[in-house]
C-alpha cells in the first residue's frame, strides 16, 4: 500500500528543539505520528547497553529498524532523534536539521542538569555542524533543510512552514508513494 503522508526526520544536537517541533507539527497536521526514538527504543526493548563515557543508552539499531519498517510503510512518521543516518533513504521524504546558537543551547542543557563535560561535547557537535553534515552525507541534498530554533517565534514559523510542506507533498503525490521503491 503506498503511503499517503510523507515521513519526516527531525534531527539536531540534543536541546535544539526536536521534540518541541515534532509535537507541535503532529498537533497541527492530522495523521502525523511523533516517534521520539529514545523513548520508543526504551519502551520497545531496543536498548543494547549503556555508554558510560557518553552518559547515554545504546540503541539496538537493527531491532529499531525492524520495528519501524511497517510504520514507515504506512507513512506520516515524524522521527525525532539526534542521529539520522540509520533510516533508509527510501523511507524518508524530508530531513529537518534544527540549529541553535551556542549560548542558548548551553543554557537549555544546563537547565536539564547535564554535566559540564556532556554540555561541552554537545556544544562542540553543534559548532562542528555534525548533524547537518550527517544529513547531507546520507540523503539527497534536495530533501535536507536547516532551520533555526532559537525562540518561540522561530518554532511557530518552522512548524507552520513544515505543515505547509506536508500539505504540498500530499497534493503532489495523489497516488501516494511506495516505500519499497
Ligand atoms: N525554538 C525554541 N524556542 C524556545 N524554547 C525552545 C525552542 N526549542 C527548544 N526549546 C526548549 O529547549 C528545551 C529542549 O527542547 P527539546 O526537548 O524540544 O529539544 P530536543 O532537541 O528534542 O532535545 P533531546 O535531543 O535531548 O531530546 C526545552 O525546554 C524546550 O522548551
Automatic annotation (TrEMBL):
- UniProt key word Zinc: no
Q: Region (LID): which ranges? A: 111-121
Which UniProt keywords are present, listed alphabetically?
ATP-binding, Cytoplasm, Kinase, Nucleotide-binding, Nucleus, Ribosome biogenesis, rRNA processing, Transferase
Q: What is its EC number?
A: 2.7.4.3
The molecular function GO annotations come to:
AMP kinase activity; ATP binding; ATP hydrolysis activity
* GO BP term (any one): rRNA processing
Q: Where is this region: NMPbind?
A: 36-59
Which GO terms of the cellular component aspect does the record hold? cytoplasm; nucleus
Q: Which Pfam families match?
A: AAA_18
- Catalyzed reaction equations: ATP + H2O = ADP + phosphate + H(+); AMP + ATP = 2 ADP
Where, per UniProt, does this protein localize? Answer: Cytoplasm; Nucleus
| UniProt-listed PANTHER family | ADENYLATE KINASE ISOENZYME 6 (PTHR12595:SF0), POS9-ACTIVATING FACTOR FAP7-RELATED (PTHR12595)
Q: What is the documented function of this protein?
A: Broad-specificity nucleoside monophosphate (NMP) kinase that catalyzes the reversible transfer of the terminal phosphate group between nucleoside triphosphates and monophosphates. Has also ATPase activity. Involved in the late cytoplasmic maturation steps of the 40S ribosomal particles, specifically 18S rRNA maturation. While NMP activity is not required for ribosome maturation, ATPase activity is. Associates transiently with small ribosomal subunit protein uS11. ATP hydrolysis breaks the interaction with uS11.
Q: Which family does it belong to?
A: Belongs to the adenylate kinase family. AK6 subfamily.
Q: How does it assemble?
A: Interacts with small ribosomal subunit protein uS11. Not a structural component of 43S pre-ribosomes, but transiently interacts with them by binding to uS11.
Q: What is this protein called?
A: Adenylate kinase isoenzyme 6 homolog
| Lineage, top ranks | Eukaryota, Fungi, Dikarya, Ascomycota, Saccharomycotina
Amino acid at each position: 500500500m503506498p503511503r499517503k503522508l510523507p515521513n519526516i526526520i527531525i534531527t539536531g544536537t540534543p536541546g535544539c528543539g526536536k521534540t518541541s517541533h515534532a509535537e507541535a507539527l503532529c498537533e497541527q497536521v492530522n495523521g502525523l505520528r511523533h516517534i521520539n526514538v529514545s523513548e520508543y527504543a526504551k519502551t520497545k526493548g531496543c536498548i543494547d547497553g549503556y555508554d558510560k563515557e557518553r552518559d547515554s543508552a545504546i540503541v539496538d539499531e537493527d531491532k529499531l529498524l525492524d520495528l519501524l519498517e511497517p510504520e514507515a510503510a504506512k507513512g506520516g512518521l515524524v522521527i525525532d532523534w539526534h542521529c539520522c543516518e540509520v533510516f533508509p533513504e527510501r523511507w524518508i521524504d524530508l530531513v529537518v536539521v534544527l540549529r541553535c546558537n551556542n549560548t542558548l543551547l548551553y543554557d537549555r542543557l544546563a537547565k536539564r542538569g547535564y554535566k559540564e563535560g556532556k554540555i561541552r561535547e554537545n556544544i562542540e557537535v553543534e559548532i562542528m555542524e555534525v548533524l547537518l553534515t550527517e544529513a547531507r552525507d546520507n540523503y539527497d541534498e534536495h530533501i535536507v533543510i536547516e532551520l533555526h530554533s532559537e525562540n518561540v517565534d522561530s518554532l511557530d514559523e518552522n512548524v507552520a512552514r513544515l505543515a505547509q510542506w506536508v500539505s504540498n507533498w500530499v497534493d503532489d503525490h495523489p497516488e501516494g508513494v511506495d516505500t519499497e521503491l
